[in-house]
From TrEMBL:
Single GO MF annotation: oxidoreductase activity, acting on paired donors, with incorporation or reduction of molecular oxygen, reduced ascorbate as one donor, and incorporation of one atom of oxygen
Boundaries of every Peptide-N-glycosidase F N-terminal domain copy: 203-381
Cited InterPro entries: Cu2_ascorb_mOase-like_C (IPR014784), PHM/PNGase_F_dom_sf (IPR008977), PngaseF_C (IPR015197), PngaseF_N (IPR015196), PngaseF_N_sf (IPR043022)
Name this polypeptide is given: GLPGLI family protein
Signal peptide: 1-20
Alphabetized Pfam families for the sequence: N-glycanase_C, N-glycanase_N, PNGase_F-II_N
Native species: Sphingobacterium allocomposti
Gene3D superfamilies to which the protein is assigned, alphabetical: 2.60.120.230, Peptide-N-glycosidase F, N-terminal domain (2.60.120.1570)
Alphabetized UniProt keyword annotations: Disulfide bond, Signal
Length: 551
């Protein structure tokens, strides 16, 4: 009698069928099996379904990793991420299993000896086929789709991406190290997704809602402030990296009172020589080497010399006309102003200078406004995103007058035939040499270089290397970032106008100029631009930055 009661209790506990299955799947694309993949596993019975991988079940998977569970009694769908051996996070979705609109068809085929029917659905404009069987009297699938139609043995997306069962094994029960269990830390779906997403890459916050304004009484905190508050700098620590990473810089900008479009720059202090730009910021720009080309002026800290390096420009950006702060100044039908400008750019080529080091990163926005701007800045580093090792980087020139309010003059020297000429030295032969070149023209009146296309010519050791005319014709695309852009009688706004390689509210991407291979020793780069003549008190100038990338 006790035996019969035990059997009855087991049947009640496990459902009408105690049979469990382990299904192994492989991924393929265009019928080519993905090499060195971690096989996808589905464990399922009448009470639960678990979606995991071989490495996870063997405790050999790298962190973080994610496992999915279906509680077939309650209809709950759990997602669990293990961040480490001691840290995990879960979330519960009670609606996901009934959410998909799946159409069942009469089409059939055989997979691993089981008769399968086809179901179809669509997800984010992707056509999905699900081949499922009811021969085993259990339900399950290798992802969240089709969990309630039977046991899905093949998933096909757009006809070419497949997850296909290659083995079905009967089990007496789902192993305890795999089976659904109580979770201590269960959060809402948004919190879960946010923490899981951020765990996949390295975040290095630099500034959070920091003010960049013109204020003679700058405060002192963890952020260094220069040039009457128009430049902010902070030291950051970048972890050691084991190759194959990709890095991005992201800046969010809002007006805090300044209504105009301004030049902005995110930069890193070069420390490869004895004297740095930071020395000039602290001690006065006149303590840095001067560039002279015969126009009678001196330009401090803009070019590489023996013993001094200019800053690396990570990103050139331009603020829009008063985004956020002035959004209520002009109301137009069909236009909803953006609440901020977001700039994001790949800076992977600088990882060799950052990894495992403490570096100074700064942001400049040229303005004379007491309210100025608010900025948030971060660098993110993403593992496994690139197979290329970061190149070596040599700062050559940067004529953006980052310390404009601290004594650094505008780069007007392109009025001379010589333009910008810099000699640098390589200690070894270099291959795959590129000049990372950013250029924007300025002079904000009708005849100024901001609004007049001008050819940029690059010379290497006296020979022409590259020429192009930097020009942006897409500025009207960013009208919704510019609430107080000037409006003209002809229906155009100032922010619509084409400009010399920049638009209010955008990033100016670098040009990568191929220079081939260079021998060890000294080389000279010259930049020549036909700069326009002054008109009254107005003048034209060019902000150009150049860093040498090589291997």
């Amino acid at each position: 009698m006790k035996y019969l009661l035990s059997v009855l209790f087991l049947i009640i506990l496990t459902g009408t069928s105690a049979q469990s299955y382990k299904v192994t799947y492989q991924r393929s694309y265009n019928d080519k099996v993905s090499p060195q993949q971690d096989p996808l596993l589905v464990f399922t019975d009448a009470n639960q379904t678990v979606i995991t991988t071989h490495n996870i079940t063997q405790s050999t998977s790298s962190y973080p990793y994610e496992t999915f569970y279906v509680d077939r009694k309650s209809g709950g769908y759990y997602k669990l991420t293990n961040f480490s051996a001691s840290k995990e996070l879960a979330t519960l979705d009670t609606t996901i299993l009934g959410r998909d609109k799946i159409t069942l068809t009469d089409e059939t085929k055989t997979i691993l000896g089981y008769r399968c029917k086809k179901a179809i659905t669509s997800v984010n404009s992707n056509s999905i086929e699900l081949w499922y069987t009811n021969d085993l009297n259990v339900k399950g699938a290798p992802n969240e789709l089709g969990q309630n139609i039977g046991l899905v043995l093949e998933y096909v997306r757009n006809g070419n991406t497949k997850i296909t069962a290659i083995h079905v094994e009967k089990l007496s029960h789902i192993p305890s190290n795999v089976a659904l269990r109580p979770f201590e830390n269960v959060v809402d779906a948004l919190t879960y997704q946010d923490q899981v997403w951020k765990s996949r890459f390295i975040q290095i916050p630099i500034f959070q809602d920091e003010q960049i304004n013109f204020n003679e009484k700058t405060t002192s905190d963890s952020v260094l402030r220069f040039a009457n508050g128009t430049v902010i700098v902070k030291k950051i620590k970048v972890p050691e990296l084991a190759g194959g990473h990709q890095a991005f810089v992201q800046l969010i900008e809002k007006s805090n009172g300044d209504a105009y479009d301004r030049t902005g720059s995110v930069f890193m202090i070069a420390d490869d020589q004895a004297q740095t730009f930071l020395d000039g910021m602290k001690n006065g720009m006149n303590t840095l080497p001067m560039y002279r080309n015969g126009d009678g002026k001196e330009y401090p800290g803009m070019v590489r010399t023996e013993g001094y390096s200019p800053v690396y420009e990570l990103m050139r950006f331009f603020t829009p006309f008063g985004v956020s702060h002035f959004n209520d100044r002009l109301t137009l039908k069909g236009k909803t102003w953006q609440d901020s400008a977001i700039y994001r750019q790949d800076i992977s080529e600088f990882l060799s200078l950052m990894a495992g080091k403490e570096v100074y990163v700064g942001t400049y926005i040229g303005n004379y406004d007491k309210g100025g701007h608010k900025v948030s800045l971060e660098i993110t580093i993403h593992p496994g995103a690139s197979k290329m090792e970061s190149p070596k980087v040599l700062p050559i020139f940067n004529t953006t007058n980052v310390m404009e309010m601290g004594g650094q003059t505008y780069a007007t020297f392109f009025s001379q035939e010589k333009g910008l000429e810099v000699t640098f030295e390589l200690d070894k032969d270099a291959t795959d040499v590129q000049l990372r070149y950013i250029t924007t023209g300025h002079g904000g009146w009708g005849g100024g270089d901001e609004f007049v296309p001008k050819e940029n010519r690059i010379f290497l050791n006296g020979e022409p290397a590259f020429k192009f005319t930097p020009w942006r014709t897409d500025c009207g695309s960013y009208r919704l970032y510019n609430p107080v852009s000037g409006n003209f009688q002809n229906g155009l706004s100032s922010s619509d106008l084409s400009r010399s390689n920049w638009c209010p509210g955008t990033v100016t991407p670098p040009n990568y100029i191929n220079l081939g291979s260079l021998k060890a020793g000294k080389h000279t780069i010259r930049v020549q631009i036909p700069q326009g003549e002054p008109e009254g008190t107005s003048f034209s100038f060019w902000n150009v930055s150049g860093a040498l990338l090589y291997r």
